[in-house]
Structures are given as structure tokens and as C-alpha cells.
Write a structure and sequence with these properties.
The chain has eight helices and eleven strands. The longest helix is centred in the first third of the chain and has 79 residues. The radius of gyration is 47 Å and the shape is elongated.
């Protein structure tokens, strides 16, 4: 192939090209860099230039070629590198975001699985509790008992217009605990609270932990059961006798005790009594205080050093009440305390005093 001869290109002696000499410029044109020459040709085509006019009729063609094509070359190269640099961090960021979403999705799935398992277990415990309650109701004989010669009015009030004389007219309940003790030897009595779902046998363990997660049948169940404080006497001879149970969302155990905090409950006078039946006697208790309080141990004190200490205790728990029950209290009174969870850090508490009893 015959090479192009550029020796015939006229040189303008007054022109000083950018590369210092004609020799360098001619070498530049003679360079066999086909890529660069292709770019020059492409530029000519894009700009509709005539080759002869562009190359042969311009005295400063060398400088034009250098200025146009070299600048284009470097611009393309720089832009290409810049584009690569811009794409790399974007791609990296996309990859990081992708992994972040994957991790979050995995965490979300784990939370869903754990929550679902907890709900399933909770529902199973509820069903077991209801089955146990139904079984108990089938064998327990709970009857109302009218007053007789064995009935005793406790700490009679002198004021004949006080609520005391209203409540003692209510009948006691009597429950045969023998069949229940065959099912569970820890059975200590039966409790009934007016206008709530609380109508169960209660037990007493060797501590206050066992029946937090064991049912009446002594099988593991996070619903637990109603139990008497292990420090109390089964015959309720202490100054402060305490019953505990979980506040279940399905309103079993002490789940309905929170009703006592609502005005439509405590404004109904007929709701203010609690009835118990033990192996030895049937008793009635008049409510004098209902409240919720941060978790503490003061209200579950069972022993007092003196009557003064006990009177201070009575005054304190009475003043805590969200409703004024207008009940008189003395150090001769025995009280019953019901305690359950209101939240993780608070407790619902109900206090009542003994007003009537009947020996079995």
C-alpha cells in the first residue's frame, strides 16, 4: 500500500506551531496511530468537513488537528475515567444497601416467628386453663349459705347507717373442698369477687413462685393459678392475708380485677364484697381500698411489731384508694389483700376487711 506523502504540504514560515517545530508536527502527522487518525476522520464526518479543504488548504492544519483531536482524545479519556470513578461508589453503595435490607428482612422474619410462637403458646395455656376451670366447676359444689347460729358478725360498727350493716345481709358461700383436695392437696380455699370473673379455688405452695407458672393440676402453665401467700396461715388468722394471681388478657385468674379501678364498678355498692370458703369457715370481706401502684412490698406486709405500726399501715393503704369507700378501720380488723399485675412495673391492689364469718 502506498503511503500518503505529506511532503507537499505548504509550510507557512511565519507560523510557529504548538509543538515547537515543523519537524515534530510532521512526525505527529506521520504517526501510525490508527486510533487517533480514526478519531480525526470521525470528527471530520460529524462536522461535514471536506478532507482536502481541512488538510491541504490550511496552513495551520497541524495546529488545528492537534488542538481538535488531541483535546478530544484527552477529554474523552478523562470523562471516561471520571464516569468509572463515579460508578464505583454508587455500585458499592447499592451493594451495601442490598445487604442491609437482607439483614433487616432476616431480623423481621425472626421476630415474626418468635412472636407467633409466643401467641400460640399463650393460646394453648389459655385453653388449658379454661379446661381446668370447667373441670373444677363440674366437681365443685358452690352454694350460698344463709346465716345461722354459727354466723358471727365481726367488729360490729356502732353506726347503724354505715355500709357495714348493708353488706352483712349478703349470704356467705360454702364450698366442699374435699373433692378439690383430691385433685390438688395444696387447695386452701375458694374465692368469689362480685361482678368479676374471679370465682376459683385457691392454693398455697411452699413459696410464692411455684404457682406463678403451674396450674391447679400442677402442670406447667404460664397462666399460673390463684394462690395464698406462703407466709399466711391457711385459716387466714394473720392481720394481712394475701392472694395473688396473674392478670390474664382473657380475663381468667385475676384478669378481671382491673375492673375494680373503673368508676362503673366501684360506684355500684353491691360490688364491694369478697367471699371466701376454707376448710374450717366461710367468710365475708368488705372492700375499703382499690388502687394501682408501682411494684413494692409494703402492702404485702404480714407481720407488724405493734398496733401502732399496724394502724399506720391501715391508714396508708386506705389513703391510697382511688375511691372513698367510707369504711372504718381499727387494729382489731383483719384484712384481705388481692394483688395482680397492672403492667410490668405496676400492681393492681384491692384491700377488704373481715365483717362476717361462719364456722363449718
Amino acid at each position: 500500500m502506498k503511503e500518503d506523502n505529506y511532503n507537499d504540504i505548504p509550510i507557512n514560515e511565519d507560523y510557529i506551531p504548538r509543538h515547537a517545530s515543523n519537524y515534530n508536527n510532521l512526525n505527529y502527522i506521520n504517526a501510525k496511530d490508527t486510533t487517533l487518525r480514526n478519531w480525526n476522520e470521525e470528527y471530520i464526518k460529524q462536522n461535514n468537513c471536506d478532507t482536502n479543504t481541512t488538510i491541504h488548504k490550511s496552513n495551520n492544519i497541524l495546529d488545528n488537528l492537534d488542538k481538535i483531536d488531541c483535546s478530544k482524545y484527552y477529554k474523552v479519556d478523562l470523562d471516561s475515567n471520571k464516569e468509572k470513578e463515579e460508578k464505583q461508589p454508587k455500585n458499592k453503595k447499592k451493594k451495601n444497601n442490598k445487604w442491609l435490607w437482607i439483614v433487616l428482612l432476616i431480623i423481621f422474619i425472626i421476630i415474626i416467628i418468635i412472636s407467633s410462637l409466643k401467641i400460640i403458646l399463650w393460646l394453648k395455656d389459655n385453653k388449658k386453663t379454661k379446661d381446668t376451670v370447667n373441670e373444677i366447676n363440674n366437681i365443685a359444689d358452690v352454694t350460698e349459705k344463709k346465716d345461722d347460729e354459727n354466723t358471727e358478725l365481726v367488729n360490729k360498727e356502732e353506726n347503724t347507717t354505715s355500709d357495714y350493716w348493708y353488706y352483712i345481709k349478703f349470704p356467705l358461700i360454702d364450698v366442699d373442698l374435699n373433692k378439690l383436695k383430691e385433685k390438688n392437696s395444696d387447695t386452701a380455699g375458694w374465692i368469689n369477687v362480685n361482678n368479676t370473673n374471679i370465682n376459683y379455688p385457691y392454693v398455697q405452695g411452699k413459696d410464692n413462685n411455684y404457682y406463678l407458672d403451674h396450674s391447679f393440676d400442677k402442670k406447667y402453665n404460664e397462666a399460673g393459678w390463684v394462690f395464698l401467700d406462703y407466709r399466711n396461715d391457711k385459716n387466714l388468722s394473720n392481720k394481712n392475708n394475701i392472694l395473688y394471681a396473674h392478670s390474664r388478657l382473657d380475663k381468667t385468674m385475676f384478669g378481671s380485677l382491673s375492673k375494680t379501678l373503673k368508676s362503673n364498678w366501684y360506684n355500684n355498692k353491691d360490688n364491694h364484697i369478697i367471699r371466701l370458703s376454707t376448710e374450717t369457715e366461710n367468710t365475708m370481706w368488705q372492700i375499703f381500698s382499690v388502687y394501682k401502684i408501682p411494684e413494692e412490698t409494703y402492702y404485702i406486709t404480714t407481720n407488724f411489731n405493734s398496733d401502732n405500726d399496724y394502724q399506720m399501715f391501715l391508714n396508708t393503704i386506705k389513703e391510697r384508694s382511688i375511691h372513698n369507700f367510707s369504711t372504718n378501720l381499727t387494729t382489731d380488723d383483719k384484712i384481705l389483700t388481692l394483688s395482680t399485675c397492672y403492667s410490668d412495673t405496676e400492681r393492681t391492689v384491692v384491700h377488704a376487711k373481715l365483717i362476717k364469718r361462719s364456722q363449718k
